[in-house]
Amino acid sequence: MNPLTEKQLRDSLVNATRSERQRMIVPDLDEVPWDSLEYLGWRDRKQPLSAYVVMWIDDVPVGMLLRATERTGPRRAVMCAWCEDVVETSDVQLYVARRAGAAGRKGDTIGTLVCSDFRCSRNVRRRPTLAEAGSDDAAVRAAIVERRVEGLQERAGRFVAEVGSTA
Length: 167
Hints:
By secondary structure, this protein is of the alpha+beta class. The chain is built from 6 helices and 5 strands, in the order ααββββαβααα. Strands 1-2-3-4-5 form a 5-stranded antiparallel β-sheet.
């Protein structure tokens, strides 16, 4: 992922109001491992149910404001819809995003299950288990990781594009 500035992050939010953009708490961008991310996702420190995701789509940063659902009852193991990791299933949460444009102003939303701390990029890069790879061949494992990375980019990008769609 290409590095982003604070201004780019704020300007990229397709479903946020001006005041929501101004209130956004930006992470320390000097600490972000840009080379190992497909998207930048973070939770707001001051508003724990608010979160943000920004990714490059067609060479333009596109971001969205998300709202996490409050956790009630026991946690269930569910799979993240973006990274589809079968190992890390205990900390996945439903996030809802208001659609951009008139639909969002009317209250139209879209939701998805995503890793609570947006660790999808790390999950897709983990070493495939022997059961996943079928062998200990480094080339096979590398190909699996490459397919995971591409899948994450496609699924997350499709969700971000859907949020930004005003049609």
